[in-house]
Amino acid sequence: MNRNQLPFEQLDVFQAAVEFAARVHRLPIPRGYSHLGDQIRRASCSVVTNTAEAATEFAPVEKARIFRIALRSAGECFGIMRLMSELEKLDPGEEMEIRQVGVRVVMMLMKLAKPG
User: Fold this and answer.
1) How far apart are CA 35 and CA 11, in angstroms?
2) What's the domain count of the chain?
3) Alpha carbons 68 and 50: distance in angstroms, whole number
């Protein structure tokens, strides 16, 4: 571990969440759909921040609760992507790349969100 890194920065779930949010932030948002762009960007940031917050929590019940918040934010991202796809405002190739990372994040968060 790099001396300038915090322990949670080494976690696969945190690294994947950062990659997911970065990919979301690079999505081109079509004119007239900035509200969806703003919402998906905020939700993807929430995945990152809540994952980091949960990873620094010691109480197992609270840790699981915060991971569930991150999981819900990831779900929000997937809902917005589905809507953008249905409206034909999301490139299928970009959607697939983001989904691949996002599914990894969701699967890890689902395990971490279970109390105990």
Assistant:
1) 32
2) 1
3) 9
Evaluate whether residue 71 is within a structural domain.
yes
pLDDT in tens, 66-105: 999 999 999 999 999 999 999 999 999 999 999 999 999 9
User: What are the DSSP calls for 58-85, one per residue?
Assistant: -SHHHHHHHHHHHHHHHHHHHHHHHHHH
Amino acid 14 reads: F
Are the C-beta atoms of 1 and 10 separated by less than 8 Å?
yes
Domain range holding 40?
A: 7-112
pTM, rounded to two decimals: 0.94
Looking up residue 99, the CATH number of its domain turns out to be: 1.20.1440.60
Cα separation, 111 vs 116, in Å, equals: 11
Q: For residue 51, which of 13, 100, 4 has the smallest C-alpha distance?
A: 13
